[in-house]
Specification:
This protein is an alpha/beta fold and 224 residues long. It has one domain: HUPs (Rossmann fold, 3-Layer(aba) Sandwich). It is 32% helix and 14% strand. It is built from eight helices and seven strands; from the N terminus they run βαβαβαβααβαββαα. The protein has a seven-stranded parallel β-sheet with strand order 3-2-1-4-5-7-6, sandwiched between helices. Helix 2 packs antiparallel against helix 8. The radius of gyration is 17 Å and the shape is globular. Adenosine-5'-triphosphate binds next to helix 1, strand 4, helix 4 and helix 7.
Amino acid sequence: MSHVPRPIGILGGTFDPIHHGHLRPALELLEMLQLAEVRFIPCRIPAHRGTPHITAEQRFELVQLAIAGQPDFVADDRELRREGTSYMVDTLASLREDFGQETPLCLIVGADAFRELYTWHRWRDMTRLAHIVVMQRPGASQPVPSVLEEWIAPRRVHEALMLHGKPAGSILFQPVTQLDISATQIRVLLARGQSPRYLLPEAVLAYIADRTLYRRLPVLNPLT
Ligand code: ATP
């Protein structure tokens, strides 16, 4: 009998810096969806936002520090090794090459990122390469744009185990513990000389403190 491998979770992001709002939901998805692993993939050049506040190598190092010791969490630097804008569809194609045609791939996105999905490069191709798992994130829940609604309907599944049956093509909305933490909030605290302790792992905070990162106030400041 052929054995289908367990799905791989893929959490892409700017991780500027990584925080507990990324880590705790990722662990819950690893367990609830019975994933083989969750791969954290920091982008080199984000497609939809300004230049990150620290280098891609620093953001990747912070990811490594944050997940050290957690079995089945993997730091993946493939976007750092690619030239040009980091498009998720290219990342999924490269993962598909590595993991073969049978392994289910699950692209994990927060509900806020998911609402913007139709603006992503070749977004309709993403469900040819992977499933999409949408994590509920705190904040006013805005309606999904109608172009997405029509696209979701035929793909939506309500059972985590449905993601195990085929390699790609389904969309699952999965509630996770709501942690109202954002990298923006952490950068604002640091720029103000306040402590972001307990919003992110101690090892990540120590690295930031050692190198006095994030000392300039971000241009966008939602806390003022
Ligand atoms: P910023 O505040 O700089 O916009 P961020 O905290 O949203 O950053 P990203 O690296 O952009 O972090 O997020 C990567 C992915 O993790 C996105 O899909 C995003 O929706 C999701 N995410 C980030 N924070 C949370 C959170 N607190 N709960 C659930 N999902 C989250």
